[in-house]
Design goal:
8 helices; Conserved hypothetical protein from pyrococcus furiosus pfu- 392566-001, ParB domain; ParB-like nuclease domain-containing protein; 3 domains
């Protein structure tokens, strides 16, 4: 099934939220995005010929609410004209398909750390710390699986977590550097780092830095 996806500008005052929207969105975060990024996709509005409810929003209800909060007079819309059954399917599919998505934390962290700030992204520094912590946990788990001699023991893990509890990386004088590699190269890099790691007290980051310093020195 395809729809005649007519795009137009509509007065915010003439649009109505879907009458049974189960989604509870973060209008504050959306409003910040509208301020920083502007509107970058239209909201989907049902003309209402078959439902008796004209100009009802099927996708983008919280964008409409945020636009109202920001005092917008007009908003870009994409019109469809469907019956009640199809409208309900569009509303639920729009929400559920977003729920079923997942993230590659490494790529997400790279995107966020490359930005000068987090304004308009929907993320705050605490969110970024959580993402980086998940990456750290994955690295530790992988390391434990591949090299028991240099693995961090449960006691060491707990001691490290206790010592740094409540501190951000910035407060600990640390900064994350993300390297994105194809799977085969990433496996080789993991193996080489483990081979070069002299003892369990040397971090993987220190191994990489020492190797880079050695390579730079040999080329000087």
């Amino acid at each position: 099934m395809t729809h005649d996806l007519t795009t137009d500008t509509a007065p915010v005052a003439e649009l109505r939220a879907y009458h049974r929207n189960p989604r509870q969105g973060d209008t504050r975060a959306i409003a910040e995005s509208l301020r920083v990024n502007g509107q970058y996709r239209p909201i989907v509005v049902n003309r209402g010929t078959h439902t008796g409810r004209a100009n009802e929003v099927l996708a983008g209800n919280h964008t409409l609410a945020a636009a109202r909060d920001e005092g917008w007079a007009e908003i870009t819309v994409c019109y469809v004209d469907v019956d009640d059954d199809q409208a309900a399917r569009i509303v639920t599919a729009d929400n559920r398909t977003a729920d079923r998505a997942s993230y590659d934390d490494r790529i997400l962290a790279e995107l966020l750390t490359d930005l000068p700030d987090l304004d308009g992204t929907g993320y705050d520094p605490g969110d970024l710390d959580d993402i980086l912590a998940r990456i750290d946990d994955t690295v530790i788990e992988t390391h434990q699986d591949t090299d028991a001699d240099y693995a961090e023991s449960p006691e060491e893990t707990q001691a490290r977590q206790n010592a740094t509890e409540g501190e951000t990386r910035a407060e600990r004088g640390l900064r994350e550097i993300i390297l994105v590699l194809p799977n085969a190269d990433a496996d080789e890099a993991d193996s080489l780092i483990d081979q070069l790691r002299p003892d369990s007290d040397t971090t993987r980051g220190q191994v990489v830095l020492d190797a880079l310093r050695a390579a730079a020195g040999s080329e000087a």
